[in-house]
Amino acid sequence: MEKPVQLNARQQRVLWATVRHYVMTAEPVGSKSLATGYDLQVSSATIRNAMGVLERSGLLYQPHTSAGRIPSDSGYRFYVDDLLEPSPSLTRQVEAALTERLDWEGWSVEALLQETAQVLARLSGYIALVTLPQTHAVCLQHLQLVRVEGDQILLVVMLDAYSTRSILVQFPKATSQAGKEQLDRELQILSNFLNHRLRGKPLSAIVDLEWAELDRAFQHYAETLQGAISGLAQRTRSTPASQIVFSGLAEVLRQPEFASDQLHDLIYLLEDGRDQLWPLIAAAGEPAAEPLRIWIGAENPLEPMQTCALVSAVYSKDRKPLGSVGLLGPTRMLYENAITAVESAAAYLTRAVTQGFRGLNSGT
């Protein structure tokens, strides 16, 4: 999109006020509303002249000849790039809300991200989108064998995608006949041995390892464990790479822009077209991924989103992008709040994946 013509200070102030007023009211903006509602210190006639310049520049337009003016996609873009004023106090409020409502300790990553989406949707009134951490190779970080009951053992695996997988394993009856304390000791020894041998290896390659290395005392576990890990590897491969959790459809229903047809197309995109949505929000595997992305109206390549704005920020570990947090709403979006919310959530998730998931967490 070409850069709009240069605006003087008065024209910029009128554009700022027009965007702010339209965001709040969803009604076309007239010069009298700006003269009475904002401290522009000029007459209505002067404001009308400035609005005329903005219209000729393509930053405002009239939906009807007798109506006031509303911002165009270019007008919103100019506002976001040149006029937006971040609010440090709002940043603190969002961070406090996330810290109060979320707790990464003891949660699975999926649960944390789903709750993050719900919190963002409630705070913003828009649809919140969060991508699960994506890595090129899914490797084993930690493995634990836990006695459940009888001859059933729970195998829990933590992957470097910051997710956990678990499966119930039924060992031979000879194993279940051992005393509980003896079995617990054997399972801990075996867990330690497997972690030493397997940590950092791709899950898909583990099934091809030479299991004969197991001590003779544990040979009766080998075939069962190999089958269980093979099953986990298959489940991991069958999981779509482009995983997006979302929340906030109820909130966005309150926005007047979303007529029934538009909402239907948007719901279809969220529920059945996430592969199309993925390139707009995903950041994993892009070392130079922009920390903040904003798509406004026609800038969106997907037709159902061309009446929408998408604001997303990257969360990472060791400065490597893992996923993104986004807010999707009408172009009549309070961009200051949306940007603050996604950046604060991304910073929170960056701390979570860096500090909170070093060990094996509960969850499957």
Automatic annotation (TrEMBL):
<dbReference type="GO" id="GO:0045892">
    <property type="term" value="P:negative regulation of DNA-templated transcription"/>
</dbReference>
<comment type="similarity">
    <text>Belongs to the HrcA family.</text>
</comment>
<dbReference type="InterPro" id="IPR036390">
    <property type="entry name" value="WH_DNA-bd_sf"/>
</dbReference>
<keyword id="KW-0804">Transcription</keyword>
<dbReference type="InterPro" id="IPR029016">
    <property type="entry name" value="GAF-like_dom_sf"/>
</dbReference>
<keyword id="KW-0805">Transcription regulation</keyword>
<feature type="domain" description="Heat-inducible transcription repressor HrcA C-terminal">
    <location>
        <begin position="110"/>
        <end position="339"/>
    </location>
</feature>
<comment type="function">
    <text>Negative regulator of class I heat shock genes (grpE-dnaK-dnaJ and groELS operons). Prevents heat-shock induction of these operons.</text>
</comment>
<dbReference type="InterPro" id="IPR023120">
    <property type="entry name" value="WHTH_transcript_rep_HrcA_IDD"/>
</dbReference>
<keyword id="KW-0346">Stress response</keyword>
<dbReference type="GO" id="GO:0003677">
    <property type="term" value="F:DNA binding"/>
</dbReference>
<dbReference type="InterPro" id="IPR036388">
    <property type="entry name" value="WH-like_DNA-bd_sf"/>
</dbReference>
<keyword id="KW-0678">Repressor</keyword>
<dbReference type="InterPro" id="IPR021153">
    <property type="entry name" value="HrcA_C"/>
</dbReference>
<protein>
    <recommendedName>
        <fullName>Heat-inducible transcription repressor HrcA</fullName>
    </recommendedName>
</protein>
<dbReference type="Pfam" id="PF01628">
    <property type="entry name" value="HrcA"/>
</dbReference>
<dbReference type="InterPro" id="IPR002571">
    <property type="entry name" value="HrcA"/>
</dbReference>
